[in-house]
From TrEMBL, chain A:
Pfam families: HATPase_c, HisKA. Keywords: ATP-binding, Kinase, Membrane, Nucleotide-binding, Phosphoprotein, Transferase, Transmembrane, Transmembrane helix, Two-component regulatory system. This is histidine kinase. SUPFAM superfamilies: ATPase domain of HSP90 chaperone/DNA topoisomerase II/histidine kinase (SSF55874), Homodimeric domain of signal transducing histidine kinase (SSF47384). One of its GO terms (molecular function) is ATP binding. InterPro entries: HAMP_dom, HATPase_C_sf, HATPase_dom, His_kinase_dom, HisK_dim/P_dom, HisK_dim/P_sf, Sig_transdc_His_kin-like_C, TCS_sensor_his_kinase. SMART domains: HATPase_c, HisKA. The keyword Membrane applies. GO terms for cellular component: plasma membrane. It catalyses: ATP + protein L-histidine = ADP + protein N-phospho-L-histidine. PANTHER family: SENSOR HISTIDINE KINASE YKOH (PTHR45436), SENSOR PROTEIN QSEC (PTHR45436:SF14). It comes from the Bacteria.
Automatic annotation (TrEMBL), chain B:
The modification 4-aspartylphosphate is found at D52. SMART domains: REC (SM00448), Trans_reg_C (SM00862). This is DNA-binding response OmpR family regulator. GO terms for molecular function: phosphorelay response regulator activity; transcription cis-regulatory region binding.
Length: 456, 219
């Protein structure tokens, strides 16, 4: 998966799923935190109540130690409600707590901190109040029989600290959980989408000529529609190419068979015609026309095939390819009075499609042979021109009208007398190849220089 | 010279080819369909079969395969309107000995038939045939259009190497190497001298030259 994470399917899925996991994790942590906080508050409140009851129990001793008669006398406060030992024991048990005892509404025991004393009110039940910057919570236990009100207070901060500690303990496992999910998610997604990568690798490894249907039995069923659609497209492309080739083959057969009959008959008649006769000359003209026609058919079929061509790439030995193309024409050229020379480095390898390259070089050389009426050498050279590999063919023909040089290799054919579709085919073949064809008149005397630049 | 089977469905071309082959001195049986061709092969042993691949009833390559199943030795020259390299390879793979693309030249046709007849008469791979020249490696004889030609040992070696690799260029260095085990010392122009002698004794364009590539006997 190259490129930005967001632009790939895996990346996009990963980012979204990870966000979902993170949000879910945070929400769960938040809910957990709220529940824990409510629980802690409830327990702390419970403990405040317990604390007031403990104080009351400690005081009961003093009450029962009094004269039983005095129990009826509720109008006078006791001098001492708590012993010094009880007081210090209670304070030591929870140093953060403050308490006050009201007897008959009059403070009998005061909180040790004067600022807390100001905030404490003689009211039963829970109460929250401020002491300076801090918030405090208190509980007042009313004992009506003894005209007692016991208030225990503690700063909320105590609970906050507790809640914070729980939060800290929760945070690390949750972070680890999210991180772990992130890693696990990535691995799962990569594994799940490896089928897509396998599919793309299969397609990328195919050459343009390999159009048979994809057969990937190990693919997940989700990809079946894509593979089916691709196979449908491959089948249509293959059918179109086959149809075009079948048509060209049929056309070749239909055109060449009557030409072959014509040529055989004309040759047989020519054999029997007395030399120098009018009949002999007429039959020679007829044969030349037949040959010209069949050459044109060959060229048109080549053009049609180039248009339907699918490009492949392989390691091509240019020296060998040029040698073969020259060998196929050497006898014909020798009879036409032309000979060949090949100049090439010992090793000339290119990565290209040999079929259009062969067609291009062959048509250029055929064109050169055709125009080498006066003889002369056709030089074929393989060399590097400006860093690009080039095949150069130089002939000793008449060259070309400079004004027509640019148009000569277009579809309209060769402007040189006697030229067919040769250079148009060469240009088309070079274009199919992704290269470039350059036609120039030679600067060292008459003749044409054709250069095929291979693509980089 | 020999009895040939011509398999061609097009009447004007078939008549023309039969006339051309008879002109070259052969007896010709003409089959217009694949069925007829297979039937004719059952009763007659032909010297060469000329087979058009575009037949109306049976695909030409199927006829060729069936012919090959029955008779491994009869030379078959495929004649076709198709010149795609893949089709050429398919034809040769199916057992064709030679391949001609329409429209054909009657002199070329006669030469190819002669070459196949010579090859059939030769003893397997000991006989090299190219154009009108037959070279017998075992008997160390060379014949041009069935007339014996006298060659020196060097000329014979060079002709044999070029004919074995007919249709491809052979570099001068390779030709010199082929002569080395015979002579310890080779003059710098030994190959050129032998080549010009071969051209004089055989046909002028039997061996073609290209600078940078070497020498070649065209197929």
């Amino acid at each position: 998966m190259k490129g930005a994470i967001g632009s790939s399917l895996t990346g996009a899925l990963y980012v979204r799923t990870l966000l979902l996991v993170a949000v879910t994790g945070m929400l769960m942590a938040g809910v957990l935190f709220a529940i824990v906080r409510a629980d802690i508050n409830q327990r702390a409140d419970q403990q405040l109540i317990t604390a007031t009851h403990v104080l009351h129990l400690l005081m009961r001793e003093e009450f029962t130690a009094e004269d039983p008669k005095s129990r009826t006398n509720h109008d006078t406060p006791y001098r001492r409600l708590l012993s010094e030992e009880d007081l210090s024991a209670f304070r030591a048990s929870a140093a953060w707590r403050q308490f006050a005892v009201f007897h008959f509404g009059i403070p009998a025991v005061r909180p040790t901190r004067s600022d807390v004393e100001k905030g404490v009110a003689a009211t039963p039940g829970f109460r929250t109040f401020d002491v300076g910057d801090a918030r405090w919570r208190s509980y007042g236990l009313a004992v009506p029989e003894q005209r007692l009100l016991i208030v225990v207070a503690e700063p909320m901060q105590v609970r906050g600290g507790l809640i914070l500690r729980v939060g800290e303990q929760l945070a690390i496992p949750i972070m680890l959980l999210i991180l772990g999910s992130a890693v696990l998610l990535w691995l799962t997604l990569r594994r799940g989408l490896s089928a897509v990568q396998q599919l793309s690798a299969t397609l990328a490894n195919r050459s343009a000529a390999e159009l048979e249907a994809l057969h990937l039995p190990a693919m997940p069923s989700d990809l079946a529609p894509i593979i089916a659609a691709l196979n449908g497209l491959l089948e249509r492309v293959r059918a179109a190419i086959e149809h075009e080739q079948a048509f060209a083959d049929q056309a070749a057969h239909q055109l060449r068979t009557p030409l072959a009959a014509l040529k055989v008959r004309a040759q047989l008649l020519l054999r029997r015609a007395p030399p120098e006769s009018e009949e002999h000359a007429a039959l020679s003209d007829l044969l030349e026309s037949v040959d010209r026609g069949s050459d044109t058919i060959t060229q048109m079929l080549q053009l049609a095939r180039l248009d339907a061509a699918t490009l492949t790439r392989e390691r091509v030995d240019l020296r060998e390819l040029a040698g073969e193309v020259i060998a196929d024409r050497a006898l014909f050229a020798a009879r036409a009075g032309a000979d060949f020379s090949l100049t090439a480095p010992a090793v000339a390898i290119a990565s290209t499609d040999p079929t259009p390259l062969r067609v291009a070089l062959a048509t250029i050389i055929d064109n050169a042979v055709e125009h080498a009426a006066s003889g002369g050498t056709i030089d074929v050279e393989i060399r590097s021109v400006g860093g690009r590999t080039a095949l150069v063919v130089r002939d000793r023909g008449p060259g070309m009208d400079p004004e027509r040089l640019s148009g000569a290799a277009g579809r309209d054919g060769d402007s040189r007398p006697g030229g067919g579709l040769g250079l148009a085919i060469a240009r088309r073949a070079v274009t199919v190849l992704g290269g470039e064809l350059l036609l120039e008149n030679r600067d060292d005397g008459p003749g044409l220089r054709a250069t095929i630049f291979l693509p980089d | 010279m020999a009895r040939l089977l011509l398999v061609e469905d097009d009447a004007p071309l078939g008549r023309g080819m039969r006339a051309a082959l008879e002109d070259a001195g052969h007896a010709v049986d003409w089959a217009r369909t694949g069925e007829e061709a297979l039937l004719a092969c059952r009763s007659e042993a032909y010297g060469v079969i000329l087979l058009d691949l575009g037949l109306p009833d049976i695909a030409g390559l199927a006829v060729l395969r069936e012919l090959r199943d029955k008779n491994r030795l009869v030379p078959v020259i495929v004649i076709t309107a198709q010149d795609r390299i893949t089709q050429r390879v398919a034809g040769l793979d199916a057992g064709a000995d030679d391949y001609l693309v329409k429209p054909l030249d009657i002199d070329e046709l006669a030469a190819r038939v002669r070459a196949q007849l010579r090859r059939r008469d030769g003893r397997g791979s000991d006989l090299l045939v190219a154009r009108d020249v037959a070279l017998d490696l075992g008997g160390r004889t060379v014949r041009l259009r069935d007339r014996p030609v006298a060659l020196t040992a060097k000329e014979f070696r060079i002709a044999a190497l070029l004919m074995r690799r007919a249709g491809r260029f052979v570099s001068k260095a390779e030709l010199e190497a082929a002569l080395y085990d015979q002579d310890q010392y080779i003059e710098s122009n030994t190959v050129e001298v032998a080549i010009s002698a071969l051209r004089r004794k055989l046909d002028k364009d039997f061996i073609v030259t290209a600078r940078g590539l070497g020498y070649m006997v065209a197929k």
